[in-house]
Amino acid sequence: MSDIIKVVILSIVEGFTEFLPVSSTGHLILVNEFLRLEPESFSNAFNIIIQLGAICAVIRQYFYKLNPIDLGKISFNTDMGDYEFRSFSEKLKFRINHFHRPTMRLWIKVIIGFLPAMVLGLLFDDLIDKYLFSPTVVAVSLIFWGIVIIFIEKNKSIKTNTKKLGDLSPIQAVKIGFFQCLAMIPGTSRSAATIIGGRLTGASRTVAAEFSFFLAIPTMMGATVLKIIKMGTGFSTYQWELIFLGAVLSYLVAEVVIKTFMKFIKNNSFTVFGIYRIILGIIVLGYIYL
Q1: How far is CA 139 from the centre of its chain?
Q2: Which three-class secondary structure state does DSSP give residue 203?
Q3: Does the bond joining 102 to the residue before it have cis omega, within 30 degrees of 0?
Q4: Contact by Cβ (8 Å): 197, 253
Q5: For a tag on the chain, would you pick the N or C end, based on fewer CB atoms within 10 A?
Q6: Which residues have C-beta within 8 Å of that of residue 222, sequence separation ≥ 6?
Q7: Do 116 and 107 meet the contact criterion of CB atoms below 8 Å apart?
Q8: How buried is 161 (Cβ within 10 angstroms: 0-12 exposed, 13-18 middle, 19+ buried)?
Q9: Residue 96's Cα: distance from chain center in Å?
Q10: CA atoms within 13 A on the CB side of 2
Q11: What tens digit of pLDDT does each residue of 98-131 get?
């Protein structure tokens, strides 16, 4: 099988699974059992770096909510209506002095939620890579967290108190951040861990999913930088072309998936993802041991 076909398959898997609560890393580990880019060091780097494509999809779709200096959010005084800036620096200064406070508060919560994974990731990244990156771990994690997702969705005692993203508290952000650390175990799913954390802290499905998207930005960028530092970037021109192709494809697929996913959860629960995880985990275990 040619490298191009491998890149297409791996990138589609990444873009499709990154923001669903099904574990993109787990799926890539399983797919790599059947097809892998060579050498292994490049394959590992490729799987991490192309995540940036999926992140770009979140940034583009939620740019308005994430951009704290969007002039469209600023309430101008009437005497500013036809004001023309005399220079770019004056315009930039005006923008900086008019940060949109709700957006800044959202970013503070995102950073707060990111800190636990940053600290624990730096401490345990090597150990996790050495001992936990295996199909068996992925399968068990898929099944276990699939059961947890179904339990949460069926448990009527879990109350939904936070129905707007702006109402998410810093304490909730911290709790969700610690839940995200569970995703260091392959097969858990960063998206699943943060959504579960959000639901258990009282967030609605939509709020939990959106905060999971935003939390992915610093988390996945940090993970990518960490991997690049450890693995190096001494790739050939051809390998960089494969990485670029993979990032573009994962971006395009993630664009569609994010929109579809958000529409789906407005009227449906996460139960279907829990069922999918359990079925896939059982199939993987059967393949390994039967």
Answers
A1: 20
A2: strand
A3: no
A4: no
A5: C
A6: 114, 117, 118, 121
A7: no
A8: exposed
A9: 28
A10: 4
A11: 667 788 899 999 999 999 999 998 888 888 878 8
